[in-house]
Amino acid sequence: MHTRAIATGIVAGLASIAAQAACAQGNDEQWSVTVETRMTRPMSTTLPPFTTTVCTPPDADQGPPPMQQGDCKVEQYAREGDRRTYRVACTQGGTRTVGEGWTEKSGTSAYRGEMRMASDDGGVAMDMSYAGTLTGSCTAGR
Fold it and tell me: Entry's InterPro entries (predicted)?
């Protein structure tokens, strides 16, 4: 399940990208992000959705933040209109996991996205979808 931990960290980080893209100058913004995960390998199963809170500074479009789990780096990041696409690679416990996905704004108070991840050793693969909704203001750690 270490891949799920990496994926959770990536989604939280990438969710903040979309949130940052939707931020206006001023107060930091608090987002509620719901993530749904479906394991596709080694067995097919759907994990219970979880919701997390993300606080983002108004520094919009600075690119992907550092990933929160394992040794992860963004290999590609592109922005076209309200859509961002990305490719990330993580190594944890000697296993490399690669993910590709997209995030798209829906106005100034919502976004959604999807990501597919798979370990290079063929052991684990998963699909994730996530959606964020602006819930208020907050103070981001700097």
Answer: DUF3617
